[in-house]
Structure formats: structure tokens, C-alpha cells
Amino acid sequence: MGQVKVNGHTNGHNGLNGVNGHSKEDYSSFLTRHRPQETYSLTSIEPESFYGKLRTLYANKVLKTQLEQLKKQGSYDAFKLKWHPVYDVRRLYGGKARTDGIPPSLFWESDVGKWIEGACYFLSSPNAKRFSHACEFDAAIQELVDMIEKAQQPDGYLNIYFTAVDQEGRFKNLRDLHEMYNAGHLLEAALAHYRYTGSRQFIDVMIKNVECFMNQFGPAENQLHGYPGHPEFELAILRLYSLTQDRKHLEFAKYLLEARGVKRDDQNGETYFVWEAKQRKDEIVAPTMDTIEDVWYHQAHKPIHDQEDVLGHSVRAFYLLTAAADLGGAFLNDAKRLWSDAVDNKMYATGGFGTEPRFEGFSPIPHHLPQSTGEGGCYAETCASIAVMMTSERILSHELSGKIRDVLELCLLNNTLGGGNLEGNQFSYANKQASWGNEDEIRHDWFEVCCCPGNVSRQLGMLGGYTWSVDLDEDKKTINLNIYLLLSATRTIPLPNNQSATVTMKSDMPWNGATQWDFKAPEGWKWNVRLPKPDYAENIKVSESTEEVQPGFLTLSLASTSSLTQSFNMPIRLLAPHIATGQDTLTVARGPIVYTAEAYDNEAIEAAYKHFEGVGITSNTTFTEIEEIIHGIPVILLQADQSAYALNELKDDQAYRVVGKDHLARSWRKLDKGIKFVPWFARANRGGKGHLRTAFLRADEALAQS
């Protein structure tokens, strides 16, 4: 490979020296930091537990619903490359952008890929025999793989839209048109398929597809220097390298990360997306942009090493950071820096991310977190919380942090699980914290762009891989076990010489903080265990002596055959947001579960104060816990013991009022009832009109006024 000038400086491109001129770094730990997609099948989750019941719902109902929707949508048969009427909707010519958005069929490979991937995870789990549609899913997977194989072009290219509709647009618009994104999801599906079936049919197709991209894109002078507009391909290529251990796959993934946002002299001093738009003579600006130079939406405004704030589309940002954290080295620091900005400055209480509906992403203003359309935004896409889970797990694979573990759990139990209803037939894309105007927060059967439903299925399918991680020290015969999630499951741990160890965890979480473990390993082995110390837990008790070596984790050593218990209290908490939000509100939480109030449980209050606008609770509110079953899933509802309050000034039509000793800025009316709260993930499951509110005004002044 030759040398080119980047920002006026010559940088080498030999081996793993990247386009930013960074020196070689040690990636030797990459192959030992196993991924959830590789280890999930070693864990058997107890079917009658909270998580087990959710997994059964997804295996028996949700995957079936999604398969039917894919067939109805047209994406299931699209790999036959025949014409479909939907191709005329916002049709593309030469890959040029449109002012009214992109074609609804542009993502079909990813929809199919995520379904295959999720189905393979469930079908290869230890309790797969319990799932009622296993044979049907197996047949559908094989039919899809056969169609995908036949759809591949002789040079390895594989894309429905740019083969059947706009052949001229192939590789013309990486910024907007998702060729690499779709390939990434198909590659992840192929990896799951290979691990499930042992067949190389699908993975060989995708390796050939990867080689097609590698021939076209890279740092060499005779290549285009592009990268995904929507990150995903990077993390999938890294996962491919974990399987193949072919150095060229690692080099290509690293190139995709390093090339992003770089201004090159051989691109007229522009970043790739700007140069690319000018090459296709495309003067149209996509709806998510203001000018063609405006590429922060794609996280391409600067090289990732130079990005100080997390900006743009929230899912894209965290798919990118997942790859960065997985690769490690300097990219791990980038992932941690931008993760911290998002979590500390741009996260909703429910583990939701993204305030701006226009571009489904982050506000550049720290702590700008509107709760509803009426407050100026709120999006909190389901996929964004899943992407944060992915990034969090990859950071944890390098170093333990209780804060990162807590965020992973928060995202899972709230915004991620809340992405589907508990009947298995409706889903949410955006997850606004409050309804407003004529809106409701009722889930939908499907979406024109349906990325979120399949993503939730994938997460629950590989949940065992998120539960814990294992690292063996064979010389010291030590099993290092890091526990991330508290649930009921058994993990099998392969050991040298065809031996194995097991750990069985029985937990009452997420409703009660009691967990016990049984450890069994061959004689001569020992356990080094790290238990979570959640930030919401009080009065933590462990049956053995522990030490907090890493913040948020309790470390202890155990003999080969041992038992252990942990317990803690989870008091109900009232959470106040950062003062910079400008919101004087309280959000109810119990343990890792965040709560919301629905019109369904509070009909009279919501009828008088639509969407609960102007309704408040006090900081000393106490609650009565109510156990309930919603569509077979056990939950705890919370009934406020004290009455709620409502602002008298809510309906005042004056823009400004004089206030003083005798004229308070806010005065409150005591209501007849207290508010009943439901777990955020369980909202919109029992009927009703879909009106809700999560953060309520803090009404402490009412106590003084009374």
C-alpha cells in the first residue's frame, strides 16, 4: 500500500497502522474476550423465572408474529429479486438522496437478518425443545438462506434494492443508503446460523460478500475510502474475525473505524461522505441534515478519537461505540468517553437515549431531556437502549465498573423490554416519557422501518451471554466469574481435559434482592467471583467475606464446590433530574425498575388533567406494593399512599404573572386520590387510551401551603 496525505500530513497505511497515524496497538486480548453471541448457549435460563417467562413469550409468540409480519411486508420473499410494488415508494435513482426520506424497502436485509439471528439464538438454547414453532422456524431459516445464497451476485455483492431496483446506485451513497448496515446484519445472522447449525452455507456467502466490500473500500490508493453511514458492519466484521481469526478481517474492521471522519487530500480535503455526495452531483440534502457538510448525524464530522461529545443518531452512535469498545486500544478510551457523555448528560431515567425526533438522536445541549412532544421532543428509540447495552457489555469485557453494569441492567429492564408488549404482538419504536395532545403511547403491530422488534428478540435470545462472563486461568486452576445480571440460570463452563464446571444461580430479581449460587468444579479448581453491588441496593449482605476491588463489584474466592447467598433491600426511590434540565420533577423507581402512571389506573385524575399535565407528587410520598400478573408476567405495581396535587395555575391564560409574598408562583390543589404506577416496561398492556406520564412535578410547596 502507498502513502497518502491526510489533513496535509503523510500517514502510513502498513498493516494495522491506521489512517490517523496511530501506532500499532496490542489487540491480543480480542480473541479471549468472548461475546454474548458466542457464549449464550452455555447458559440455561430457568423457564418459570421472570426472564424465563419473557424468553418463552418471545420464542413462542414474538418470533412467530415477526415472521408473519416479514411475509406480509414483502421482505421475506424479496431475495427472489422480483419486483414489488413498494419499490415505487420514494424510489431512488443513481443512489441520490431525496428530500422526503428513503425507500421503506431499503432495510429489508436487516429485518430478515435480525429475525434469523434471533431465531437461531432461541433454537440453539438449552431449552429449545420447549418452543412450539421450532420446526417452522427451522424451515423458514433454511428457505431464507437458500434465497439469500441465490441472490448473491458473482462478485459477492448482496443487496436487494441495488440489485432489483437501482443498480446504478450501487456503492454511490454509503452515507444514506445502508449497504454496509444491511450487510452487517446479514453477517451477524450468518454467524448465529453457523453456530446453531454447523453449516457453512450462509457464512460462506457472507464472507464472500465481505470480500466484495474489502475489494472496493480501504486505505489503498486504488480503493474508495468509505465507511458505513449507519455503523453496524464494523462490529459484525470484528465478530467475524473472532470466528475466522483471519487478520485481514481485523484490519478491515479497524480501517472502518479509523477512516471515519478523516479529511483526505485525495478527497479534495473533504470527509468521505461530503466527497461522495459531490461525486454523484447530489445537491439534495437529506431531511436529517442542513447541508451536505453536516455529517455529525452520522458521527462523521471528526475522527472518532477527536469526538468529545456524543452527537447525531443515537443508535448509529452506539453501534459505532460497540465496535470501538470491542476492538480496544485507543478506541476503548473513545467508547468510554462518549458512553459517559451519553449516560451522564443525555439519558432518560428509563435508560432511553435520543431527544430529537427529527433525527432520532442526541441534542447537543447537555441535560436537554424533554419528556414529550409538548415539551419539545423525546424519542428514546428501543434500538438505542439495546445499542447502549451492547457497548456497555463490551466495555465490561475489558474492565469491571458497577456504573456500567447498572446502566446495562437499567436499559434492559426498562426501555428494551418496553419495546414489546406482553402479548407478543405489538411493538414500540419511540418511547416517549409522556403522551401529549392527540398522541398516545400505545404500541403498534409493525412499522415501515421495523428495526426495533427484531432487535429485542436478539437481545432476549442471547440473554445468557449478557448474564455473566468467564475467564479461565489454567495455570492457577482458577475460574474467574463476573456476574452482570441477577437471574435464575445455570452456566456450564468447559475446562481442559474434557472436564467442566457449573454455576447455578437462583434469584428473585428484579422484584426482590435475594440470590443464591451453587458452584461445582473438579477438585483442585477454585472460583474467583465478582458479584454486582447495585447503586439502588441497601443493606447488602453476602454469606462470605468480600472486598470491593473494582467499584460496584464485590470480589470473593471460593473452593471448587461451594454455596453463596446475597441479599439486599430495594427501597422505593424518587429520582430528581439534573438541575440543568430545568425540570423540577420526580420519577418513581424501585430497584432497577422505573415506573410510569397510565390513565388505565388513574382514570379520574387523567380525565381532569389530560396526560397528567400539571399533576405533582411530594418528596415524602410513600407507596404500597401490589403484586399483579400481566399476561402471565409477574410485576409489582405501586400505589401512592398520599394524594396527588394539581397546579392551580395550569389553566391560567396569562403569559406572565406578578408574584410575591401574597401571590405565589405556584399553588396546589389536593386531589382525592394518590397515583398508581406500573413498571415502565409493562405499560400499555391492559387496554386504555395510552395516556401516561413518567416524571411528575415536585409538589413539595403544597405541604407548606396546607
From TrEMBL:
<feature type="region of interest" description="Disordered">
    <location>
        <begin position="1"/>
        <end position="21"/>
    </location>
</feature>
<dbReference type="InterPro" id="IPR049049">
    <property type="entry name" value="Beta-AFase-like_GH127_C"/>
</dbReference>
<dbReference type="Pfam" id="PF07944">
    <property type="entry name" value="Beta-AFase-like_GH127_cat"/>
</dbReference>
<dbReference type="InterPro" id="IPR008928">
    <property type="entry name" value="6-hairpin_glycosidase_sf"/>
</dbReference>
<dbReference type="GO" id="GO:0005975">
    <property type="term" value="P:carbohydrate metabolic process"/>
</dbReference>
<dbReference type="InterPro" id="IPR049174">
    <property type="entry name" value="Beta-AFase-like"/>
</dbReference>
<feature type="compositionally biased region" description="Low complexity">
    <location>
        <begin position="7"/>
        <end position="21"/>
    </location>
</feature>
<dbReference type="InterPro" id="IPR012878">
    <property type="entry name" value="Beta-AFase-like_GH127_cat"/>
</dbReference>
<feature type="domain" description="Non-reducing end beta-L-arabinofuranosidase-like GH127 C-terminal">
    <location>
        <begin position="577"/>
        <end position="688"/>
    </location>
</feature>
<feature type="domain" description="Non-reducing end beta-L-arabinofuranosidase-like GH127 catalytic">
    <location>
        <begin position="49"/>
        <end position="460"/>
    </location>
</feature>
<protein>
    <submittedName>
        <fullName>Uncharacterized protein</fullName>
    </submittedName>
</protein>
<dbReference type="Pfam" id="PF20737">
    <property type="entry name" value="Glyco_hydro127C"/>
</dbReference>
